[in-house]
Amino acid sequence: MRKVFYIIAMSFCLLIQFSCKKILDVAPEQSIEAGNAIENDQDVEALIIGGYSIMGRGSLYGTNLLMIPDLLASEDYCSWRGTFVSYDDISLKQMTPDNADVTRTWTDAYAAINNANIVLENIDKVQDEELKKTLQGEAYFIRGIMHFELVRLYALPWGATPGNSQMGVVIKTTPTTTEDQAFLKTPRSSVAEVYKQVIEDLQAAIQVLPDDNGTRADKFTAYAFLSRVYMQQQDYVKARDAASEVIKSGKYKMNASISAVFANKNTDESIWEIQQNEQNNAGDANDGMATFYASLDGIGRADVRIDAGFIDTYPAGDYRSTGWYYEGTGRRPGNMYCSKWLSPYQNLPVVRIAEMYLNRAECNQRLGTTVGATPQQDLAQIRNEIRVGLDPVVNPGLQAILDERFHELAFEGTRIHDLRRLHLATGDFDWNANELVFPIPQRDVDASEKIIKQNPGY
Fold first, then answer.
1. Which residues of the chain, if any, have pLDDT below 70?
2. Would the keyword Signal turn up in this protein's UniProt record (predicted)?
3. Under DSSP, is residue 324 helix (H, G, I), strand (E, B) or coil?
4. What distance in Å separates the CA atoms of residue 42 and residue 135, rounded to the nearest whole number?
5. Which of 80, 145, 154, 416 is the most core-located residue (most Cβ within 10 A)?
6. Could you give the angle at the alpha carbon of 329 between the alpha carbons of 264 and 89, nearest 5°?
7. Could you tell me the CA-to-CA distances from 271 to 37, 41, 84, 279, 405 in Å, in that order?
8. What confidence score (pLDDT) does residue 8 get?
């Protein structure tokens, strides 16, 4: 077990050092080849588990990938009231290339990608054929969604230039396990090229993942993310069809209570969530969703304050306007906070079946189709008298579906991505403003000897 832990730690350290004064300036004693230390099924699976662990950190789905997209679109929505300068700068759109959270999100995403690449390079060492396919699929899944999250944050959005030729991110499909590999300098690929790689990885994952993989990613988790990718590209036919695959699987259904998916773990509503408990979590003091969102006696820093004007946009009588928002009692009483994130030990839903219903409803509405169900039927899964205290919308138009989307998925890390897709501004910042794009960490630009180009405006 110590050997496996060392492999995981070593591969992560290699990625961390990608940003030193030389590309992955690895000390000789750290430059053993991980591939030579991986021998069997358990070693390869340990690397996959390591990948999930990295994705659960505060730098990724443990906090940043769920919170930062909302801070980037904070106008008339929320405000940052904490002391962490990195988050304050993100909320104000005043990021610099040495922003601590800009840097750690980039670094840890590539660490997870590296784990996935090491798995794929060593997949033939897995003797159990079913396990081999599952681990291979999980590796493609991790690599695909991490490139997707990176390109959405560190590049101008899809549609910003003809042919999406704007700079994307560095595509990594080979592992970094040796000193020679560490010194390779790779330029950024275009946004179009990154999306192509993401789609190929998710499609490859779908081909080999099982229908059910416990709390880890399965075929329908990959379909759900594929629907997200196609939505971001405004490819509404493919986004609709991928969402339909998830829905018609029959694995998932909306809970009757709006709070159940956040108050309980792995409910039928959740397609994939980050597993947390008292011993294993993103944090309860300086990281974690409850750390920043909660304002309760003894829980939370009350750093993300919810705009009361946004809460007022919910229809009168909507259970969500009271069930998901509350007046704080902790550090900053009297202000409004989001009750989706109340415990530092709760699981963190990353994608819910509600999003798939919303995707399919919007796509069918735009396309004039009724694949799987009508938009009215899909929207009624989310908005109905039992769940939210409102009657379903009869013959919903596109705006009604979008309104439902912004209300249902609030503070789950989707807002800036939806605004960009819909070409909507946040405050004075247009959907394709340079200020809404993260800078590439300066130390990575410098370490690559400017082969990795910086984003405009930095």
1. 1-36
2. yes
3. coil
4. 11
5. 145
6. 85
7. 34, 26, 32, 23, 17
8. 40
Q: Are 164 and 144 in contact (CB under 8 A)?
A: no
| DSSP per-residue string spanning 290-318 | HHHH--BTTB----EEEPHHHHTTSPTT-
Helix (H) or strand (E) holding 83: none
Whole-angstrom distance, CA of residue 233 vs CA of residue 228: 9
How far apart, in whole angstroms, are the C-alpha atoms of residue 58 and residue 45? 23
Residue 423: phi, psi to the nearest 5?
60, 45
Residue 338 has φ and ψ, to the nearest 5°, of: -100, 125
HEC assignment per residue over 104-173: HHHHHHHHHHHHHHHHHHCHHHCCCHHHHHHHHHHHHHHHHHHHHHHHHHHCCCCCCCHHHCCECCCCCC
* The predicted structure's pLDDT at residue 188: 98
pLDDT score, position 19: 37
| Inter-residue contact 224 to 248 (CB < 8 Å) | no
Place of tokens 């300066």: 442
Q: How far apart are CA 268 and CA 209, in angstroms?
A: 19
| Per-residue pLDDT, 180 | 73
β partners of residue 296 = 299
Pairing between β-strand 270-274 and β-strand 78-80 as defined by DSSP bridges: unpaired
3-state secondary structure of 95: coil
pLDDT at 16: 38
CB 90: neighbour CB atoms within 10 A? 24
Structure tokens at 271: 């397609």
Tell me how far CA of residue 425 lies from CA of 57, 151, 297, 355, in angstroms: 30, 19, 36, 22
CB atoms within 10 A of CB 329: 17
Structure tokens at 455: 């984003």
Residue with tokens 């990795």: 452
Maximum CA extent, the chain: 67
Residue with tokens 């209570």: 257
What's the pLDDT at 31? 35
Domains and CATH numbers, the chain: 1-209 (1.25.40.390), 276-338 (no CATH)
- pLDDT number for residue 22: 34
Residues 409 and 196: their CA atoms lie apart, in Å, by 26
Enter the pTM of the model.
Answer: 0.93
The C-alpha angle 31, 35, 41, rounded to 5 degrees, equals: 140
- The strand pairing partners of 190, in sequence order, are 167
Find out whether 135 and 120 touch, Cβ atoms under 8 Å: no
Give the three-class secondary structure for 94: coil
Place of tokens 């509405």: 365
Tokens read off for 336: 């409004």
